[in-house]
Amino acid sequence: MLFRVIVSPDNIRRVDISESLCSVEHLKNILQERLELAGDILIQFEDPDFGNELCNLTDIKELPKDKAVLKILYQGAIQQRDESASSISSTPSLNDLLPSTSTSRSSTLHLTQRDSGMENTFSMRRKEIVGKQPFVSDVMNRWLALFFEEQICAEFFRVTRVELMKTFLSSLDEHSAQLIKLYRSRSGKLEKELKNLLDIFDEKTTDVLEYRKSTALRGLPLYLKEQSDGFLKTCLDTDPVDVAVQGMELGILTVVEDDVGTVNSFPTTRSIALIVEEQIVLDDISSFPTAFALLFGLIYALNLDYPKNLRYTFEVIQKVFLNLGTDCSARVQALKNSLLK
Fold this sequence. Notes:
341 residues, four-stranded mixed β-sheet
């Protein structure tokens, strides 16, 4: 059924709902997800029996067939996601883009209503994502709330019954020191990148524990003899967005401050972002380990394949860090045995 939805005088949207609507609450949940509406809303519709005057929608059967005009009214203190962040120039810099999107997310999110809506539509969403395998841009248009940190974790739990962040970070705390020891045991020409990573870690004098966790994760592909090019990338906050994400089908982008004074020291991290299909889907993440966990959760939420060149890295995250599955490949089993020594 096709709807013309009036959210505000300057925000009028076209919404096409293919599934059968069973109740007003069902319609409300879908509109809240599609249009990113938070809080308690009231739906009115143009009633053809009264010259298309607005009436409160109390029964889904009151709607005209095929298409209808709806108006959204807010009950109580309601906030809606600020859509202005999307009206950026064609080649914005990351310095302009990254802070604005995160601020919009944090300032407009009402967790209780969003969690309820996502829980109610989980079955329908999984059927669409698994069955149709849509592009990430289509999923963002359809289920934008799925790209918030708390909803990535919630969706991961719905799929696996495992608490993503708690389990991942706990395992990282447990294994990071031993992973660093294993990295140091490697020698030879093939381990040059790994040695460079450890040299940088050894120079750190502040936030050492946090940096050790990041180093453990960054070194994992190198230790497993996999290539992380195109998966882990660092750029300046003045770089154009389209250049920064070019070639990144799935990965983590670390944005650092463009400051000549930090050439020979540790640059200031401005933002950490998740990239899927060459577009930023989540930014301003608090730490690299958090970003890694969220990306893994997003893979499950979007039913994505692991990157082929990082199959062992993600197998470690799945089977060693999150205890999902027991049968390990020989390479991962060897690492697992080393971690348990």
